Amino acid sequence: MSDLPIHQVFAAGLLIYAAARDVATRLIPDAVPIALLVLGVLSRLMVGWTEAGTSLLAGLLLFVILLPLAMRGWLGGGDVKLIGAMAVGLAPYETWVFIMATVFAGGVLGIAYIAGRYVVPETRVAGNTNLLRRVLAVEAWRMRRRGPLPYAVAIAVGGLIVLNTLPGV
Description:
By secondary structure, the chain is an all-alpha fold. It has one domain. Helices cover 75% and strands 0% of the residues. The chain is elongated.
């Protein structure tokens, strides 16, 4: 892991943290997309000013395109910020791979949640239960009541896929 660029290591950690927080609370702390944005700009500046500007423009464009989806309730605002911030650290082609991987991961997540409504048994949690069991019980309840997906999980999967295919790994 010592040969991984610092951007990839920190971005992966931030994506995993965002996914875990989204599963637990359905909220993504604003600090995560902000940190990804700063990290991405610094990473792209190492390549060049033009590349940094192009990536910043791509991230902004993605944010503007996805914002109406968030305003209609089809995507969370934190998800929109996370996708836009992640795109800032990627070249345009890598951004395309990230979006495609995220869409496919979101499809798998959606299918899992639909199937989970019928497969996952109702779980009761009482007393001293470990954290994983409590999270699974809450997710089972959310599935049955058709609650929102923790889409940061799909974003994290898409991000990890693209981060692992970047040159230098």
